[in-house]
Amino acid sequence: MRSPLLNKLSVIFGPRPPVSWLLLCFVSVLALIAVFGSSSSNSFDSVTSTPVPEIFTNYRRLKEQAAVDYFELRTILSGSSRQRELGLCGKERENYVPCYNVTANLISGFKDGEEFDRRCEVPRHGSWCLVRPPKDYKIPLRWPAGRDVIWSGNIKITKDQFLSSGGVTKRIMLLEENQIAFHPEDGLIFDGVKDYSRQIAEMLGLGSDSELFQAGVRTVLDIGCGFGSFGAHLVSLKLMTLCIAAYEATGSQVQLALERGLPAMIG
């Protein structure tokens, strides 16, 4: 039996639909397919094809940067032979410090203590050379032993200078033959450093210095670090202390901190 829909169509169009009606239906179906196909392809392209130029651009940029790095590396390697040809500096430049030249600063008009500051903008003339290591310089002891014992000759402190220093210095440092031993367990000195770090913690709203690491503190600047006792104490709290001090010909605070294995720089 035929369905009611087919019976109604046969009544309207007859037992056989006209050819024009079939063609109209066929064209309508093709038009619908074309419309939906173009919209879906556009949406698909907008989703998939948009990142392609960006990905390609980023890849090309990385490739260009890799080429630049490669040529820079070749330049450095090719220039390494020229660096080996540099001669040693004279003994007068044994304690050479970049950007530190009191004579040049005085000639440039700096005075009233400003001539002792480091000034890289002051012109300097001289040939390139390799600075010699200090005479009789010894490699520091391994950490953590090097934190408490250093070679006295590396920081240029003589026995006479040590004996003429104050009592606090003698309590902190003990000169033994050619070594200087630090005694952080000294009650007076340790309590002073501990109290100083506690005051810093209280300024940050903390109960004690042991909470500094938990509060997110990682690096502390120590301006004029002295013997590095403060930095050595903070190391035990998992904090890094950077010593910044002025240049000194003898007994340099920066050199002393470096000899103890603590970060330091000339300011």
UniProtKB/TrEMBL annotation:
One of this protein's GO BP terms? methylation
Q: Name one GO cellular component term.
A: cytoplasm
Q: How does it sit in the membrane?
A: Single-pass membrane protein; Single-pass type II membrane protein
Keywords linked to the UniProt accession: Glycoprotein, Methyltransferase, Signal-anchor, Transferase, Transmembrane
In which domain of life is the source organism classified? Answer: Eukaryota
The enzyme's E.C. designation = 2.1.1.-
Q: What class of enzyme is it?
A: transferase
Q: Which Pfam families match?
A: Methyltransf_29
The subcellular location is:
Endomembrane system; Membrane
GO MF term set:
methyltransferase activity
Question: What is the similarity comment for this entry?
Answer: Belongs to the methyltransferase superfamily.
> What is the designated name of this protein?
Methyltransferase
Organism source for this protein? Gossypium raimondii (Peruvian cotton)
